[in-house]
Design brief:
Blueprint (H helix, E strand, L loop, with lengths): L2 H37 L7 H32 L4 H10 L6 H29 L12 E4 L16 H7 L4 E3 L8 H19 L4 E6 L1 H12 L6 E7 L7 H9 L2 H17 L7 H6 L3 H10 L7 E7 L11 H12 L8 H4 L4 E5 L25 H14 L3
Helix pairs in contact: 1-2, 1-4, 3-4, 6-7
Length: about 400
């Protein structure tokens, strides 16, 4: 089993044991003390009994401390699902009587579910390892969305690439600028695709693109001559028809303010690796009006298989900032959405997959790339991508 899962499971087991033995041991020591002090006060051995009781108490405290710290350190250093929130709550509540028991129970519940889930996924991958269900004819090119880059030490796609590689996928990344026009990013992608094909001899690639990356990819295929090197394009929560709320915001926000915000963003994006960032062009290309015009001029290429995926949140609180703030606005203008892109705008190509959960939080724009490395109740994001790529393989791509 993966070492991290073993450590996490071991930590959970220690915390459970700590909780049980602390409750039972404390109750026993308290009752034993009361018994000697009030029920049989004349039978005590005075100082000798008190010393023995104190020794037993110290041994008990030492044992429980070792058990607790060995468990909590394992859990804090290996758990993904605890996040910063529950780590802080655990520390803050650690010295508050009774509340610390509640916090510990919540931490145990979260990490216990995580350990069981990750163990099941590990065993599943072990069972199907020989099948290499994600080893497609053409390699996978993962294309990021706007305002992000493909960093070496922080993967835009979260735990998804690892899951795909475990099942045989060969992966490459788009590495286009994080904030630039669709045309500019599309040209970068076209050059990137040609370079991959020339270096590897793979002939073509299967593109999986998230958000604006889907628009960049379509532009690369239809306007930059990359069609002969692309077998399939799968867009994930891409605003193919734009975002009406983006048109609304750009109309309401003064041009002076827009330029001021753009300058700050561009300066920051340069520090993160963009050679020529253009915040305003990136945002303007996501409007419904810009997308409608581009869709007319750039029809899909007949030799490329197009399909799409869209998801939706169930309420504003389903997403983290700023998606929780944008959700009501997008819903007002565009309908059911993932916090940024409406389900209708995400629909494109021969096949469209709608992702939602019947209850609970739903699936946000960030969830679709495992941005927060969060396990969603009722939906396994990593397994979804494994099945998505396996389907491409089955289709002969």
């Amino acid at each position: 089993m993966k070492k991290a899962i073993k450590i996490l499971a071991g930590g959970v087991a220690r915390l459970k044991l700590f909780l049980v033995t602390t409750i039972i041991g404390s109750a026993f020591l308290i009752l034993y003390l009361l018994h000697h002090l009030f029920i049989r006060p004349n039978t005590t051995a005075g100082f000798a009994w008190g010393a023995a009781y104190l020794t037993a108490l110290l041994v008990f405290i030492l044992f429980e401390s070792i058990l607790f710290w060995s468990g909590i350190i394992r859990v804090y250093t290996t758990s993904v699902q605890l996040g910063i929130k529950w780590r802080i709550i655990g520390i803050a509540c650690g010295f508050i009587p009774l509340v610390h028991i509640w916090a510990l129970c919540r931490i145990i519940a979260i990490t216990s579910r995580e350990a069981a889930f990750e163990k099941e996924k590990y065993l599943l991958d072990q069972v199907r390892a020989q099948s290499q269900i994600c080893h497609t004819k053409y390699p996978i090119l993962l294309v990021h969305g706007v305002f992000f880059r493909d960093f070496r030490f922080f993967n835009y796609w979260g735990r998804i690439p690892y899951a795909l590689k475990q099942n045989g996928a060969i992966l490459y990344y788009g590495s286009q600028q994080s904030a630039a026009s669709v045309a500019s990013c599309g040209q970068e992608l076209a050059e990137r695709i040609r370079a991959i094909v020339q270096e590897t001899g793979c002939e073509k690639v299967n593109i999986i693109a998230h958000s604006k990356g889907g628009l960049d990819s379509r532009y690369a295929i239809s306007a930059c001559g990359a069609s002969s090197y692309v077998a399939t394009l799968t867009t994930i929560n891409t605003p193919h028809r734009g975002c009406i709320f983006a048109d609304y915001l750009l109309e309401k926000i003064p041009a002076k303010v827009q330029k001021s915000v753009a300058r700050k963003y561009n300066a920051a994006l340069k520090k993160f690796g963009d050679t020529d960032p253009d915040f305003l062009s990136a945002v303007q290309d996501l409007t419904a009006s810009a997308c409608a015009l581009r869709n007319e001029k750039l029809p899909d290429h007949p030799d490329v298989y197009y399909q799409s995926v869209g998801s939706q949140m169930n309420c504003a609180s389903s997403g983290r900032f700023p998606l929780n703030m944008a959700y009501p606005l997008v819903k007002h203008f565009d309908g059911a959405n993932d916090g940024l892109v409406s389900m209708e705008s995400a629909r494109w190509g021969e096949n469209f997959t709608e992702l939602m959960t019947p209850e609970g939080r739903g699936i946000s724009h960030g969830d679709m790339i495992d941005l927060n490395r969060e396990n969603i109740p009722g939906f396994d994001m990593r397994e979804f991508y494994v099945n998505l790529v396996a389907d491409l393989k089955n289709k002969g791509y």
